[in-house]
Amino acid sequence: FSLSPSSAPLQVELHVHLDGAIKPETILYYGKKRGISLPAETVEELLNIIGMDKPHSLPGFLAKFDYYMPAIAGCREAIKRIAYEFVQMKAKEGVVYVEVRYSPHLLANSKVKPIPWNQAEGDLTPDEVVVLVAQGLQEGERDFGVKVRTILCCMRHQPDWSPEVVELCKKYRQNVVAIDLAGDETIEGSSLFEGHLKAYEEAVMSGIHRTVHAGEAGSAEVVREAVDRLKTERLGHGYHTLEDEALYSRLRQENMHFEVCPWSSYLTGAWKPDTEHAVIRFKNDKANYSLNTDDPLIFKSTLDTDYQMTKQGMGFTEEEFKRLNINAAKSSFLPKDEKEELLDLLYKAYG
Predict the structure, then answer these.
(1) Which residue range or ranges hold the Adenosine deaminase domain (predicted)?
(2) Backbone phi, then psi, for 121, in 5-degree steps?
């Protein structure tokens, strides 16, 4: 592996969405091949529409997926290919281990109303999606030398999917290492968690690891519920934990891992640039966190974007990059023996 410009020799990434890490060329190819109308005909035009350069809102960011997902969702060949190309992308970034997450239902195109182009290909089940993604990732591992495991996402607005998500985690636990809860955290009321409690309880009983998007746009109270009710072991983002000093102190004592996505937090409006970013506090307190891309297609980024942002704008050092990658490896959802192998690899690389 060559050193990335950030100089953190080997990197571990724990928070990146497969459907937010697709090559624009692949979207255009399948749009054309499948006769699906897209809002652009060239890579540049497509990135102008779905890419973000300025801060937005979380719902505004989530709306970007609607532009391009129809070209991929429900297509067996496309799903396997985006998984394979994802591993290639991460190899170029100097990543040695990555946990990539996605909603099997969204990739299967589990919409409320059936869509004709999906039926034309034969209905694709979420179960089949998990198999296709695993095949693409395994071929990518073989060809590019990056170790990859997956996390399956429940979606906040679709609690009906969650029981099947946890069953898929159990069925494919060789490749699937955890369950996640993603989607719009600004939804009002109890729907943030209520419909997903049973799935998370089943995950706990079945020994399935757990992470939750919480405290990105939501309050510290959302973080508390993710920890106390869903029994999450890691927090996706978690920035607003800092609004509650007692909660933050408790989570640090419990060695909670924060999956930090700095560039994402700027563009989704989760972080206001006139305030100190939560990751600076995490760094100063020697908290347990990692740096991640989240959705590099929409943010027009690579992992190095996040490293450069923290290095140039927040005073991060090479030693801190090494520390946070070791913490990422320790907080990964790999089995004990594989985790120790990953840590050995990092310790050797870091000297």
Answers:
(1) 12-348
(2) -90, -5
Identify the residue whose tokens are 């719009």.
184
Query: Rg for the chain (alpha carbons), in Å?
Result: 19
| Residue 185: predicted pLDDT | 86
Mean pLDDT over the full length of the chain = 92
pLDDT, average across residues 235-255 = 98
The residue to which tokens 């992992």 are assigned: 303
Dihedral angle, C-alpha 252, 254, 257, 263, nearest 10 °: -20
Q: How many domains does the chain have?
A: 1
User: Residue written as tokens 């992470």?
Assistant: 211
Q: Transcribe 166-198 into DSSP letters.
A: HHHHHHTTTTEEEEEEES-TT--SGGGTGGGHH
Provide the CATH number for the domain around residue 318: 3.20.20.140
How far is Cα 309 from Cα 260, in angstroms, rounded to an integer?
12
| Active-site residue (options: 216, 225, 233, 259) | 216
Residue spans of alpha helices (H) in the chain: 24-34, 43-50, 58-62, 65-68, 76-92, 104-108, 116-120, 126-144, 162-171, 197-206, 220-228, 245-253, 262-267, 278-284, 296-299, 303-314, 318-330, 336-350
Q: Residue 336's domain spans which residues?
A: 11-350
Please say if 216 is a catalytic residue: yes
Give me the pLDDT at residue 80, please: 98
Would you say 346 and 12 are in contact if contact means Cβ atoms under 8 Å apart?
yes
* Nearest C-alpha neighbor of 151 from the set 125, 128, 118, 177: 177
Residue 24, token pair as written in the block: 């624009």
Those residues with Cβ within 8 angstroms of residue 54's Cβ, 6 or more apart along the chain or in another chain: 267
Is 280 inside any structural domain? yes
Domain for residue 6, yes or no? no
